[in-house]
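note to self: dont lose this again. the chain is below, predicted strucutre after it. 341 aa total, dont forget to put it in the shared folder this time
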Amino acid sequence: MRTPVPRVPSVTTRWEPDVLGDDFERTTLDLGGAPDGPAVATLVRHVPDGPGAAPDRARPALLYVHGFNDYFFQRHLAERATEEGYAFHALDLRRCGRSLREGQVPHVVTELTEHVPELTAAARLLRREAGHDRLVVMGHSTGGLTASLWAHSLRRTGALDALVLDSPWFDLRARWFHRVVSTRVLDAVGPLDPLRVVASGVSAYSYHLHVDHGGRWEYDLALKPPDGPVRAGWLRAVRRGQARLARGLRIGVPVLVATSDRTGPNSLDNPDLDRQDTVLDVEQIAARAPLLGPDVTRLVVEGGVHDLVLSAPEPRERYLAGTFGWLADALAPDREVTALR
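---
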């Protein structure tokens, strides 16, 4: 028997057209007031049969969670998920992408647990209102860390059935000394001045992705700028989340951790900018992956970039084929599930 998903603010579902086109719709999840204005999240769904089509409840639901300085725009991921038999949804978290409201600072939270209400509200909507009896969550980068902490907190509820992590942000990419010192500084500065910019400048990786700069992807540069600043309160929240992971989690469902095969410098003169993770250290991710829980599988994608979904065609296909192949096994009715105590 499934334990009910924890209580969150009630959701009134009204689907509207989305900017991605006629085969996408979105609804706003009202999360209540906040000091900087209304707190909302935006749930986007792929509707291949046209606007207003009834959901196919026999399909497992797949919920995508983006990373920092990002929002959902990867329509090719939605189309592939639909082809593979999933009801695809994506969540723009509070203060991110479609959910950013006037007067709000993009992406700022002071604890990653601030995202629990929208994740839980989306899960409840997909489980109870849409009627899907299976739920897969796919998190990228910071979204992968956030989804991992959320999955751990709901490990005895049956809220989800599998977790896919695309280059999750499990540690700070720096030498040990700098990681320790910077964390101590953030612990002091973050609570006092959470909006202070602690890192800025153009990311070569992010800059290079866009079609205007020689990349292959078109998206809204206002919602995913190549120079999104990093603020003290948000980075402190990430470091606190990473510290919680370092103590070990007990996620109670199968977990896939996917990364590129190599890490490289995040600079425009890197000849392998389009074939490496130039944002995170893949060895750090590999080292911390076993801390997620008792059932963790790694997928190493040769030639992948930080967001594996945005890689060149061949590594992108390796990632997608490997992920959906793994999911077929992870969701198999006869698969043995590790019991948590």
